[in-house]
Amino acid sequence: MTGQRRVTSLQVRLEIEARSAEGQTDAQIAAALQWPVWTVRKWRRQVQRAGRLGLAPRPGRPATGALSHVKPVIRETLRTLRETHPGWGPQTLRLELSKALGCKVETLPSRARIAAWLHEAQLTRGYQRPTTLEERLRPGGQPHPMKSGNWMHKGYNNPSRG
User: Fold this and answer.
1) What's the CA gap between 102 and 96, in Å, rounded?
2) Confidence bin at 82 (pLDDT 50/70/90)
3) CA dist 40 → 14, 18, 22, 70, 138 (Å)
4) Is the C-alpha dihedral spanning 28, 32, 38, 43 positive or negative?
5) Dist. CA 98–CA 104, nearest whole Å
6) Can you give the pTM of this predicted structure?
7) What are the start-end ranges of the H helices in 3-160?
8) Ranked by mean pLDDT, which of 45-49, 148-152, 155-159 comes out on top?
9) Phi-psi group of 85: left, alpha or beta (phi > 0 → left; psi -120 to 50 → alpha; rest → beta)
10) pLDDT at residue 150 above 80?
11) How far apart are CA 63 and CA 75, in angstroms?
């Protein structure tokens, strides 16, 4: 069977798990099922790590992070920039990242990938309800004089008169 690639079925994986639970060694299981020892060892360890759910097939590409394909220095610089400037969005972060690293913008991750990474790293800000002008206070905690009704004695003109 050398040089040939065989795919283990779920039934074979379950059989490996059952025989391992009975106390058989990897070599004994491999001989009984006619599979290489390393295949038996792989699935036995997978059961130890993740239980029976670890035996389920996982089709497709392995799940990775939003910026898993970029160099760690880019992720570290992005994190530093975001923590230093929490108001910057992905587009500004991308431009400032190119300045900080001295590279072209085209070689950096896209705005969408940076936004996805910010979300994964929990570096996004929560939604803040917009406030109306009446709810905003002037510096020092005082309401706007035109909204408080004190406009006459403050020297302001009457807004109702043109």
Assistant:
1) 10
2) very high
3) 11, 12, 14, 35, 71
4) negative
5) 6
6) 0.45
7) 10-22, 26-33, 37-50, 72-84, 90-101, 111-120, 145-148
8) 45-49
9) beta
10) no
11) 18
* Extents of the domains making up the chain: 10-55, 72-120
Tokens linked to 19: 């025989």
Q: How many CB atoms lie within 10 A of CB 43?
A: 22
| Cα 86 to the center of its chain, rounded Å | 17
Q: Which residues contact 70 (CB under 8 A, 6 or more apart)?
A: 108, 109
Encoded amino acid at 99, one letter: K
Q: Rounded to an integer, what distance in angstroms lies between the CA atom of residue 113 and that of residue 130?
A: 27
Which of 75, 78, 59 lies closest to 67, judged by CA? Answer: 75
Tell me the C-alpha distance between 96 and 101, whole Å: 9
The length of the chain is 162
Residue 23: is its pLDDT beyond 70?
A: yes
